[in-house]
Amino acid sequence: MSGQNGQHVAQHLDLGGGQIHLMRAGAGEELLFLHPAAGAGFWLPFHALLAERFDLISPDHPGFGESDRLEWIDGMEDLVYFYLDLLEELGLESVHVVGASLGGWLAAELAVHQPSKVRSLVMVDPIGLDLPEHPVEDMFGMNPDELRAALFVDQELALQFISPEPTLDMLMRAFKEKTSFARLAWNPFCCNPKLHRRLHRVTAPTLILWGSDDRLVPLAHGEHYRELIADARLEIIDDCGHAPLLEQPGPTVEAIGRFHAELAAKGAC
Amino acid sequence: MQFFMFHLMPYPYLPEDFDERESAWVTLPNTTYDPTVGTGLYNRYLDELEYAEQLGFDGICVNEHHQNAYGTMPSPNLMAAALVRRTERLKLAIVGNGLPLRDHPLRVAEEVAMLDVISGGRIISGFVRGIGDEYFSMSIDPSTSRERYSEAHDLIIKAWTTEGPFRWIGKHYRLNYVNVWPRPLQQPHPPIWIPAFGSTETMTWAAERHYTYLSVFAPSKLLKRWFDGYRAGANAAGYEAPRDKIGILLPIYVAETEKEAHAEGRQYVTWLYHKGLKHKFEHLFPPGYMTDHSWGRFLQSGLGAYSDVSYEDLVKQGYAVVGSPATVRERLAELAEELGFGLVNALLHIGDMPHDHTIRNMELFAREVMPHFRTQSAAA
């Protein structure tokens, strides 16, 4: 099943025992985008900008956005195996990967499990590392005001994404997504304690982007990722909180574009 | 009608700026709790429960809550252990145990069986999931709460009723040797009570197993729907739910006169609903604690926070019963008629009520209210 919606094609795949929603647009090398814990299923300016440069493949994780929840997925490892199946289903030997927050963690895990599948890796404010000295704030317990303050520098803009007057549909969708997120990240909280031991397996050239004012996930997480991944660098997105995709889509896509231009120049991929 | 004295054992001494705090749970600093004061409180509260035996109650109830000021019994089995040796006749209902909050269900099977044996078969075993806040306080994934509860329940019942050792291979618990010592005294096992907050799944589940169904704090029009759901579940299972399997949890305050009762009761009832039950919404409803379906029903019910309901409405809507002995008799009879319960869990210590008022409340209730319903049920 597929349908044209403005710039992108929406597909529904039968995979893993349920229907998976996937948006795709653009041309060129394939890039898999792995979304954060909230906001799946929407075609954002960030997507449109990225699709100007790549064949962008943006699925909703199972249990997020418009994808069905798959009961067998109750941890990050299950989600990694789901995505390995998805890549096979789409006939993709290897892809560029961009992941944000939860999606950044997932991207790192994919690159650990199957390094050959990941041609290049971009992580935007990823969670996933176990750093007791630099705890991630507990977003599960935050009310909408606290979430806006934690996620955004620009509080006016934040109102567009976290509504002060949510509709019933919005509340239902948020509950579904938070439930799916809880299965991945409630305990151990937002991390895989074994991940740091495994990151040496990542072979892809890696760019880590961090919002200058991320109040949810401390920059130390980005610095640790940079140290643990062989070929990694860290760049800061200015005037930005935890969600560069929403708050600074232009500079974020430009940074990704520069990174890829350099890789192309080096003939690295 | 059966009468149990219910106690929450709250910690009533809240910080002066409590009204600006988000909650009496999860994040209220435990420095609020003064252990020296706690020694006096625990012993006073236990005395109150023990006194219920002299007054002719059928039983007493202890319960389980974690890391809060509303109820200071994180281990209901410990409180039950303190009480079984100081009572002789009373039934002792443990409402706990919060099964998903325990790492090991066999600890529950063992402890409840111990209490049943020590007490000579006076234990009633509740099984609860714990409230949303407790999934934050204990860092247990709320999205697995229902399946952990269900599996732990099945394991405990099997451990109590099946010859051991046997092997248990479940999703959350995998055990090679289940062989619980001691076995419970009551056969096949102690009676089971299930407190619930109106989920359709729980009504049916409890009715199918002939378990006693207990309401928690809610307006009577909602309780009617819940109890009807339980009765429908029983009908579907091929029997008529007896009244004594339907229990109401009800804060009750009796004083000599109507005026006195409200003058004093207002503060206690308000403490309970506006302070003790002050939750952060996000803590009370963590992700996955309810099914998506139940969450949708809850949102559509328009049910607000307890703290939004005024004292007058709390009394009017049946969240609490306050008045002279005559008023309380009438109101209780009215509610019993409307809702069809045969078991009253009377919360006779409420909020920041001092000891003397608790004792007087218990005495007036036992002498002026309970006998009226005893005669009635004897006649029926």
Helix content of chain A: 25-40%
CATH class placement of chain A:
Alpha Beta
CATH superfamily of chain A: Alpha/Beta hydrolase fold, catalytic domain
Beta-strand content estimate of chain B: 5-15%
CATH class of chain B: Alpha Beta
CATH topology of chain A: Rossmann fold
Class from secondary-structure proportions of chain A: alpha/beta
CATH architecture of chain B: Alpha-Beta Barrel
**Count of helical regions of chain B:** 13
The CATH architecture of chain A would be 3-Layer(aba) Sandwich
Count the domains of chain A: 1
Biggest interface reads: A-B, 20 and 20 residues
Q: What radius of gyration of chain A results from the CA coordinates?
A: 17 Å
CATH topology of chain B: TIM Barrel
Please report which band the strand proportion of chain A falls in: under 5%, 5-15%, 15-25%, 25-35%, 35-45% or over 45%: 15-25%
What is the β-strand count of chain A?
9
Derived structural class of chain B: alpha/beta
Strand arrangement within the widest β-sheet of chain B reads 1-2-3-4-7-8-9-11
Global shape of chain A: globular
Main features:
heterodimer, A: 269 residues, 10 helices, 9 strands, globular, B: 380 residues, alpha/beta, TIM Barrel
Protein model, in words:
The complex is a heterodimer of chains A (269) and B (380). Chain A is α/β, with parallel strands linked by helices. Chain A has one domain (2-266): Alpha/Beta hydrolase fold, catalytic domain (Rossmann fold, 3-Layer(aba) Sandwich). In chain A, 38% of the residues lie in helices and 20% in strands. In chain A, strands 1-2-3-5-4-6-7-8-9 form a 9-stranded mixed beta sheet, sandwiched between helices. In chain A, a hairpin with a 2-residue loop joins strand 1 and strand 2 (8-15). The longest helix of chain A is centred in the middle third of the chain and has 18 residues, at 168-185. Chain A is globular and about 50 Å long. The two termini of chain A are 32 Å apart. Chain B starts with a strand and ends with a helix. Chain B has one domain: TIM Barrel. In chain B, helix 3 (105-118) links the parallel strand 3 (91-95) and strand 4 (123-126). In chain B, the strands form 2 sheets. Chain B has an 8-stranded parallel beta barrel, surrounded by 7 helices. Chain B is globular and about 60 Å long. Chain B has 380 residues and is α/β, with parallel strands linked by helices. Chain B has helices at residues 35-54, 76-84, 105-118, 132-137, 145-161, 200-208, 220-236, 258-276, 281-284, 292-301, 311-316, 325-339, 355-379; strands at residues 2-6, 59-63, 91-95, 123-126, 166-169, 174-178, 192-196, 212-215, 246-254, 321-323, 343-347. Chain A binds chain B through residues 74, 138, 140-143, 168, 171-172, 175-176, 178-183, 186-187, 189, and chain B through 26, 136, 139-144, 280-283, 286-288, 292, 295-296, 299-300.
